[in-house]
Amino acid sequence: MIASRRQSLKHGPGRLVVDGRDQTVTRKAQFAFRPSRRQERELHTLLRVCREVYNAALQERRDAYRLAGETIRWQHQFNQIKHLKGVRDDALAYGIQPLRGAIMRCDEAMQAFFDRIKHGETPGFPRFKGAQRFNTACWDEPTSWKLRDDRRTLYIQGVGDIRLPKSAARQVGRMLGKGGRPVTLTVTRRRSGPRHLSRWVWRATVAFNDVAVEPTTPSEGEGSLVGADRGIKVTLATSSGEMLTMPRYVAAQREHLAELERAQARCVKFSREWKRLGRQIARGRRKAANQVDNWAREQAATLVGGFGILAVEDLELRNMTRSARGTVEEPGSKVAQKQGLNRELQDAALGKLTIRICVKAESAGRRVWMVNPSNTSRACSQCSHTDRANRPDQATFSCTACGYEANADLNAAANIADRGRTAETDWKVAGAPSLPRRKSRRRPRTDTELTQAA
Ligand SMILES: [Zn+2]
Q1: pTM, full prediction
Q2: Which of 99, 176, 180, 188 is geometrically suited to a Cys-Cys bond with 208, CB 3.0 to 4.6 A?
Q3: Counted domains in the chain
């Protein structure tokens, strides 16, 4: 498991987030698929029904909150689904799972709203979703859908058997081959191509529990530890002396995007040209995000392949968690544009790198420490003298006490490795405790509910 801030274990200057003791992990298969014409019609109808449920659930919560100051719980709304029987059998044709999924999404939106209030941010009440803005259906339990035994057919209730493309079947087969048990399904649609030729692109994500891990031996030995420092110029510097910089193509994409955004700003809002540019920008962003993700995967694989213990800075990266502001792939409206694309992609890369390191470490049996990042760039890695003057410019580190000179990023990486080592020692002194395993949040369904809804 990858521990959240709350679940992690504090030892010395670090938090243990991956303890490398999992036998099985949760993994996702993500793939595009092409439904038949009839299946596509059904999928569109399914999304319309889910949207209706989402909006109805939101309406009820809005009224309850505005008129009575009350909060309605999802359990209550789940129970209402059964009343659709005989009234809206068309909605129930897809089973109750996707309808519950819509209610849970509404619940998440409300939770995010209350969180924003709690943190003193602009609350912004969750909005009703128009047809253009509701493109995802989710099944939080393995009912109303399944992967057929041939491992290349996805069955969805009310839609039918969807033949998966080869690459998807391979992904699914790999998960099943490692003992994976399919638990949740998400289906998303997106329009693609120029307007008069556009078609729908369908994607599915299947999450598997109980996927067996494949422990490997790090090339530098079991006890080897590496510290990694994020930077602005050098994206990642490691205590083993490597400096990794995100490749230029991302920068090129960035400049191209910035240009498109300036062009769009000059257009009449909602004009044909404005929309065209909008689509182009969305495409470019997706591309840049994919490139960043691929890069992060590669670097993480290298680091995890080499070392037994990994130490990274404990940073509050907005992109590490899904937030109301959106992610790079699906930005919240306009917020992203205001914050400079440059920093955004940089942050995304660092966030993704951290996540990828954790994910890879989890299945390779490594430990990951998130260490306190304060003063890592100002302290001397040789004598630990800490002074702002130690860093005369962005690239150089020059200790005013002992005279040690080094590249500033490498010095910081060495400090991070030191903190990781201290944390590791403290942890071992404490008896090397395991991370607490979290319980599933999914609610088991009773038989009576099944029969009532069927
Ligand atoms: Zn020094």
Answers
A1: 0.79
A2: 180
A3: 2
In a domain, 180, yes or no: yes
CA proximity to 452, closest of 72, 159, 76, 96:
96
Interval between CA 286 and ligand 1 midpoint (Å): 44
The angle at the Cα of 110, spanning 206 to 91, to the nearest 5 degrees, equals 55
**Whether the predicted pLDDT of 453 surpasses 50:** no
In terms of domains, do 292 and 322 share one?
yes
Q: How remote is the CA of residue 311 from the centroid of ligand 1, in Å?
A: 22
Token pair of 178 as six digits: 């490692």
What spacing in Å lies between the alpha carbon of 11 and ligand 1's midpoint? 26
The tokens for 176 are 């099943």
> Please, which pLDDT band fits residue 154 given cuts at 50, 70 and 90?
very high
- Residue at 441 is within a domain: no
252, pLDDT greater than 70: yes
Distance (angstroms) between ligand 1 centre and the Cα of 224 equals: 24
For the chain, give the number of residues: 454
* pLDDT for residue 70: 85
Average pLDDT over residues 413-425: 96
What pLDDT does 336 receive?
Answer: 44
Are 166 and 303 members of one domain? no
Q: Which domain range does residue 67 map to?
A: 28-212
| CA 367 – ligand 1 centroid, Å | 29
